[in-house]
# Entry
Amino acid sequence: MKIKFLGHSAFMIEGGGIRALIDPFISMNPGSGINVKELKGITHIFVTHGHDDHLGDTVNIAKSNNAKVICNYEIGQYLRGKGLLVHAMHIGGRTSFDFGKVKMTPALHGSGIFDRGSMIYGGNPCGFVIELEGRKVYHAGDTGLTMDMKLLEDEKIDVALLPIGGNFTMDIDDAVKAVDFIKPKMVIPMHYNTMPLIKADPEEFKEKVKNATVRILTVGESISI
Ligand code: NI
Ligand code: MN
# Structure
């Protein structure tokens, strides 16, 4: 499986015959430097919640690639209304796709969709455990630290993608505790330094994590696991 960092909480994962995006906040992210039109052959888009910096370019990319969006039921209905192909799931549900299994995990956050000046109900925010080619990646979405993360230890996560920026999500110290709960082999920090409110030093996070490998990815950088 290949994991590529696209800035903020956006990733591309490839393997098992798919090329998927998670939380594609790209064109509105001044730090991404990636042209959405260059993202070709996208088969699936995972959306963790309805906030702008996660829903991001989902509608445009899904339309131009004929990609299927995997998200909660409420965001799914909103996106179906925009003509997108949707596979809706909900918290705690696991299902098998052609490419592997996906479990939708809880996140402690909000999920409203801000559209043309009003807030649309976006259901509960989530994370995903995605299995591709026998490897498991956990994208936490936006979340505070929760005891529920202890349950993820049994999933035997290969790579955990965890927010560290604070203010809206876990900060560095809480993310270190999350690593302790989840016990992934590797962790990649996300959701930091995109704006002043979520300023965090990923090197400090790396120093504080004692029981997993921390990989700090720059935008556009990828790893194979
Ligand atoms: Ni959010
Ligand atoms: Mn966010």
Notes: The helical segments are 52-55, 58-65, 73-80, 172-182, 202-208. The chain has a mean pLDDT of 97. The pocket of manganese (II) ion (ligand 2) is lined by residues 51, 53-54, 142, 168, 191 (CB under 6 Å). The first helix runs from residue 52 to 55.
